[in-house]
Amino acid sequence: MRKFLALLRAGLKSNFGLSVLRHRLLRQKRDLWMVPLVGLALVSLAPVMYYYFRLLKSVHNLLAPLGQQAALLTFGLLAGQLLILIFGLFYVISAFYFSKDLDVLIPLPVRPFQVMLSKFAVILANEYLSVSLIVLPVLISFGVLGGRGPGYWLEAALVYLLLPVIPLALVSVLVLVLMRFVNLGRRKDALIIVGSLFLVVLTMMLQFWVNRSSRLEPDSAALVRFFSSPDSLLQKVGSSFPPSVWATKALTGGLSAAGLAQFLLYAGVSLLLLIGMAAGAEALFYRGLVGLAETSARSRGLTGAEISRRISSGRRPIRALFQREWRLMNRTPIFLLNGTLTVIIIPVMMLVMAKAGSKDSDLTSLFRMLSSRNVLLSVLVSAGFMILCGSLNGTASSALSREGSQFWISKVIPVSPRDQVAAKFLHSYLIASLGIAAASAVIFGQLKIRPVNVVPALGLALAATFILTAAGLAIDLARPLLDWINPQRAIKQNLNVLIAFLVDLGFLALLGFACRLLSRLGLAADSILALLGLVLACLAVSSWYLLGRFAEKRYPAIEI
Amino acid sequence: MIAFDHVSKSYNKGKVRAVDDLTLTVPSGEIFGFLGPNGAGKTTTLKMVVGLLRADGGSITINGLDVRTDALRIKSLTTYVPDYPAVYERLTGLEYLNFIGDVYGVPKPDRVERIAKWLEIFELESAVGNPIQSYSHGMKQKIMLIAAILPAPQVMILDEPMVGLDPRASHSLKEMMRAHCDAGGTLFFSTHIMEVAERLCDRIAIIHKGRLVACGTMEELRRIDKEQQSLEHIFLELTEK
User: Fold this and answer.
1) Which of A26, A394, B45, B58 could form a disulfide with A497 if both were Cys (CB 3.0 to 4.6 A apart)?
2) Is the complex ipTM more than 0.90?
3) Percent residues over pLDDT 70 in chain A
């Protein structure tokens, strides 16, 4: 047990960067500015949470007269568990098989199941944080609105603690078997990309399925039948993943025999799966790791003539730097997924979700606005959609961070910081333009928007994205995250990417507000668009100039 | 020539002095070895020369150019190999060398000749088309060394360059270092291998707790204490406290 706890402590510290954070904040007194920033980010969540609680309250009040309020719990718990089930696959494979600390852990005198359980516990801790914003409000709302007693709150805490266990254990067992008997290790890059795309498709299918299954049969006899039983809705919702039904019944049953029986079922299955996973780890974990360190290399070397032919005849430095960015981005699966592929997938996903969604959903109304007869509205919403699709990826805001420990190369080469950032800008802007092109294709092809509206929207989107790309780069220049081991930290767990997203959304909100103001002043649509285009063009030119100056100042100051 | 003039560098807001008032000249045409125990300030000093770290005080000049104000010109004269093999793992060896050739502006005929020569010396021809992530530690070290040689720099800064190299590669590297300095180049390198420093270096500096404790030719170092014959003994004596 002591060994397991030591592994767990090290894993948690390493995962959350606790030691580094403590060293920087308390000893080096660096990054102190992050404290108010994190506080601000938490405060900015308040409005979202307020509306979420209000939504939960109205759903509860809607379901209560029908006696179906328990379905609210099932919805919340099911959403949390399905999210963990879907995204857990990726986390489990990364943590169990592709994390760099395995080289250190395997030679230690600890059992395979202890290593695996410690890693499992670290993922569990991450999942508690990830789903807390979705699940905790549901548990709190249900308890407060139903006036539940202390027994409920105790059970709610236990249910929440056990929530990720079943989905994660299921995924872990699947991964253990898969990695032991299918030699995927040598194709780990392909595995990550194909696996992630599979998850995207699965999410879309789930979206379709949820929409379809949430539609009730229209005939009244069926409706009467449906609502005659108090748990018919929760059974229907939870039929895809029964543990969420057990947890709901445990919570609604409270400390009654039926409630406790359901809780025992829920906790018992969690425990059994955990034991099964530990047993599986003992037998399969290390065997599945064999050969993972090998990376695919060509069997045949290059001949002298081939080497001479492949030696380039001299490109301009900016072109060489651009090519480096392009290659490193597209050859690192986690970067590829969060950059190039994201900008193409987002517009397609949004379209699919809108088509699958009900007539009143936000996305469907957004797409309806795109094809509105109001030219100004159509152009602005189209531009907004393009800007979102082009800028909501972490390419620019992780441009320096992605270099990690290899940033020393950029520091010593004889290329000015201005040129280096220019190459990064061109690369990021190209990715953003791909997103804009994908969004335009969706707007133009699927929604049949008139070209006369698409072209000005395209112009506005290109100008706005130019500014946002420069802003993303400036954010990463100000505080590059270079000390990562797992590339996931450089882009997915990088605070700079989150800050850039907030800046993007803030900029869009500001643009929308400005347009509304201009429209209220009585300006014609053409004038508003022209004015907006002019302002964005001026800002774009200024942002380019300022970015170059900032790079000249920041590059020498970044120490590695 | 590299000249350090009262250079200092500290970490943790001045609490840890990594380099303390270092004044030193690394002349051209001589192999200059930089010795010191772990944490003595060797890597910090080398990093300040190539601009990875900024000195808190004093100045560093290379061929008369200040590393702060003439950074770009200095970079075009200098190459550097760090003490850890951090290279673009997702590029092939050849793509990395092409990248270095492009940013340093090495003409194609020179590139072809130097790459072919050093790939053969370091026995990397069969691996150069593969991604660097498939290389061993020593192979990564070799590709970084070829990248440092490729621009034919006037100044080479090498941090523990022998680590990970097999004896043949290590021998070839020493020959290259000698040839570089014989041609008038400057070479400043750190090492923990006393035998290498003793046999190879024209001049040696020993740093301890951030301060320079000795500097000179092997003969001059021996004169510090006549009883101490080998560099290892001198080193141990000077860095004992």
Assistant:
1) A394
2) yes
3) 81
